[in-house]
């Protein structure tokens, strides 16, 4: 349940810390969706500058994900991974969790980079 | 069929496939709950040791002790014990138990051989009798032959 204005943590080593969703208002997105974000906070030696507009893939949401086998996965925070226009991750590491929902979207690069997959 | 089950982090109950809510905290800790009730209690920071129906509480207050004792008793009774049976004394049984399989086999074979020899000798005696009857002549002897033969042949195949 990520909508316009939602702030997400950036869980990769691109240098960005906090991103804000700036896609079309009135819609909501979940894990595996690609959204447009504004970088609100970034580290000093960052690949992306604070204030720039980037694409990002949602990896963790506070809203639970219902799976086909009946189980439910839910995170304590909203998080995303920054990607370029082609959908390749900007960072070289994924620090948080990645879920199998990304596999159906063809985001295998993020899955392979992630240390922890649920 | 064996189902792979997991345990609830709060209540300690078994979670079968298709059930459960996985909650991942910011520090990476994973909590698996069986239902919304346990998830809610966890969110309220209740401690499972203070809620009566959880396994932690039941273990602490020794609620399942009777069941454990019963299980132990059942296990004890099923254990087999050597004792004297129907005129055979305990010593004889223990002696037979202690014997090596080779010794037992040898004695068994010796006994079998003896039986076979006995059978053979009895057969020869019978054959001799029969031949004596045949010499005397008459249909009576011919009739009695198959009857006399049958039990002997049967016992032979059985051995």
Automatic annotation (TrEMBL), chain A:
Pfam families to which the protein is assigned, alphabetical: Ribosomal_L14
InterPro entries: Ribosomal_uL14 (IPR000218), Ribosomal_uL14_bac-type (IPR005745), Ribosomal_uL14_sf (IPR036853)
Keyword vocabulary terms for this entry: Ribonucleoprotein, Ribosomal protein
CDD domains: Ribosomal_uL14
Presence of the UniProt keyword Chaperone in the record: no
Keyword Ribonucleoprotein applies: yes
Gene3D superfamilies: Ribosomal protein L14
Taxonomy, superkingdom: Eukaryota
PANTHER family on file: 50S/60S RIBOSOMAL PROTEIN L14/L23, LARGE RIBOSOMAL SUBUNIT PROTEIN UL14M
Sequence similarity: Belongs to the universal ribosomal protein uL14 family.
The protein's name in its UniProt record: G11584 protein
Protein species of origin: Coccomyxa viridis
From TrEMBL, chain B:
The keyword Ribosomal protein is assigned to this record: yes
Region (Disordered): 64-159
One record GO biological process: cytoplasmic translation
Record keywords: Ribonucleoprotein, Ribosomal protein
Cellular component terms per the entry's GO annotation: cytosolic large ribosomal subunit
Ranges where the Large ribosomal subunit protein eL24-related N-terminal domain occurs: 4-67
Keyword check for Ribosomal protein: yes
InterPro entries referenced in this protein's UniProt entry, alphabetically: L24e/L24_sf (IPR038630), Ribosomal_eL24 (IPR056366), Ribosomal_eL24-rel_N (IPR000988), Ribosomal_eL24_CS (IPR023442)
Bias-annotated ranges (Basic and acidic residues): 93-136
GO molecular function: mRNA binding; structural constituent of ribosome
Domain of life: Eukaryota
Family from the record: Belongs to the eukaryotic ribosomal protein eL24 family.
Protein name, as recorded: 60S ribosomal protein L24B
Organism name: Coccomyxa viridis
Gene: RPL24B
């Amino acid at each position: 349940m990520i909508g316009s204005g939602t702030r997400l943590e950036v869980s990769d080593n691109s240098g960005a810390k906090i991103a804000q969703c700036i896609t079309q208002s009135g819609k909501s997105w979940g894990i595996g969706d690609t959204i447009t974000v504004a970088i609100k906070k970034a580290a000093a030696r960052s690949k992306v500058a604070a204030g720039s507009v980037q694409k990002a893939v949602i990896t963790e949401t506070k809203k639970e994900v219902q799976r086909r086998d009946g189980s439910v996965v839910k995170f304590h925070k909203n998080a995303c991974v920054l990607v370029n226009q082609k959908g390749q991750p900007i960072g070289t590491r994924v620090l948080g969790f990645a879920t199998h929902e990304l596999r159906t979207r063809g985001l295998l690069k993020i899955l392979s980079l992630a240390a922890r997959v649920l | 069929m064996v189902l792979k089950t997991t345990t609830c982090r709060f209540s300690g109950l078994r979670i079968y496939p298709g059930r459960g809510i996985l909650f991942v905290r910011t520090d990476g800790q994973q909590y698996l709950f069986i239902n919304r009730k346990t998830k809610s209690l966890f969110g309220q920071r209740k401690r499972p040791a203070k809620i009566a129906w959880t396994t932690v509480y039941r273990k602490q207050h020794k609620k399942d002790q009777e069941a454990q004792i019963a299980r132990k008793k059942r296990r004890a009774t099923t254990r087999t014990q050597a004792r004297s049976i129907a005129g055979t004394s305990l010593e004889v049984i223990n002696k037979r138990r202690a014997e090596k399989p080779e010794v037992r086999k040898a004695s068994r074979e010796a006994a079998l051989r003896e039986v076979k020899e006995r059978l053979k000798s009895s057969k020869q005696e019978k054959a001799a009798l029969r031949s004596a009857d045949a010499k005397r002549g008459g249909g009576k002897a011919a009739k009695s032959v198959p009857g006399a033969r049958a039990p002997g042949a049967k016992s032979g195949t059985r051995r």
